[in-house]
Amino acid sequence: MIKGLGASFGYALGKVFVLEEENIIEKITIKNVKKEIEKFEKAIDSCKLDLKDLIDTTKLTIGLEESKIFEAHLMMLEDPEFIDKSKELISSKKVNSAWAVSSVSKSFIEIFESIDDSYLKERAIDIKDVTKRLVDKLLDRNNEIYNRLGVIIVANDLAPSDTAKMDINKILGFITRNGGVTSHSAIVARTKGIPAIVGLGDDIENIKNGDIIAFDGNSGQIFINPSEEIKNKFIRLNDEYLEKKEELKTFIGKKTISKDGKVVEIGCNIGSPKDLEYVLDNDGEGIGLYRSEFLFMDRKKFPNEEEQFLSYKTVLEKMNGKPVVIRTLDVGGDKNISYIKIPKEDNPFLGYRAIRYCLKNPDIFKVQIRALLRASNYGNLKIMFPMISSIGEIRQAKTIIEECKKELENEGIILKNKYEVGIMIEIPSAAIISDLLAKEVDFFSIGTNDLIQYTSAVDRMNQTISELYTPFHPAVLRLIKLIIENGHKNNIWVGMCGSVSGNPELIPLLLGMGLDEFSMNPSKVLNSRKIISKTDAGFINEKIDEILNISDAFELRNTLKNIL
Ligand code: PEP
Ligand code: MG
Q1: Residue 184 falls in the annotated catalytic set
Q2: 422 Cβ closer than 6 Å to some ligand 1 atom
């Protein structure tokens, strides 16, 4: 048995498909040379269009100089030597175009790599890049892998957009070498209900393509080529899990109310309007976090105002008057968006990201704000800014809202609904001055995924020190209490959209602290409603000081278990 970090609940038993980063390209003999050459030409044209888009966005977002890299890539796709040699190989050897392209490019790469000039050596990297783009296109790689029937995907890393592409009816689960439980791939997996283990480290080498494995997405345990006994155990556990899911359905349509009558709200975290299906299935009472950055991922340029407007409007309309918190673009950290070129940083989690990026790029930010304001006419919108660390950022962001409002008014667009403006509290500086920040906004939503990492100085993605990343650290819990108190003193509501809000061990404590709104992955809503129905909020409230005076996280967790 090997063990990684359980990132998304559920049991998986099935065959492994190892995702190679550099897939070896199979050499296939083809019958119809003319058709293969047409396919090759079509792929070249399509890559050229992609590159032209990339050049435009690069010019806009980074600069002219950087866009020249892609101009060079474009030129390579127009290089007659490269094209003719590839075509010649396809027809003389009757081979598939992907193999021909990679073999021609290999010879070019070798030439450049052998030249004793660092500038020319670098060109080999560009050729590799263009070749990959072309080969991916020819093999239609992007979609194929994620829709294989009945496999467990094993990979070094998965980008959130990769996880988003997975078809839950086909993929049994995934395991990655890197990543932490709050990485965005893990979050997407939880939303979709795909069992997942991350941060397996070098143990991943023990898993081979075609192996049968059984894994538990909660404990992180993986059994390679398990015995019949273990297989049967997993089948039984899975059945029990499905049974429990059935039982929870009795909570559908019920209010979320504690044993002593405190009513709270359970909203859901989503990454796209597609996730609404899970929200409605699980009876979410609203959207507590729409991570709008997903709309910006897996594409080649910024979504324009109309595209954004339609996405936000869809969510608001489908939620039919229930609250919808849409967070503005939270790029950076592990949320990489290919066409937003953030210069390489030593500490991307502490760097140029989220609201910092938006405030420095008002043209991009304004497109989103205008789309949001227009969408506000279709429901109960709450705009939320991520990564706020100081009051100035809120004021600047609010000024931009006012500017956009004026622009829209001048264009004759009337905003008929009231909307709220709030912030995520996920940075300790914001938590500490939450009494002051509360005067500027309509609500707070506590982002524990980041609040834990910044409070404890523990990278949320680093599995080597993952045991230090804990919500049970009294510093984190004290900050949460402080934020809720400061919000309430200033008459604003306080929610939580980080993973802690769906943690069964902490829900009672949060309820006792007076949290007004919980927002979580849709799959957790019904179980959380059940836990709340069994909790006496008043009783927990009286115990809070005692709990928060325990200095050790491990001890605190045990005490909490005993009290409940
Ligand atoms: C958080 O930090 O808790 C949060 C909800 O935001 P994200 O996970 O998207 O950084
Ligand atoms: Mg965050």
Answers
A1: yes
A2: no
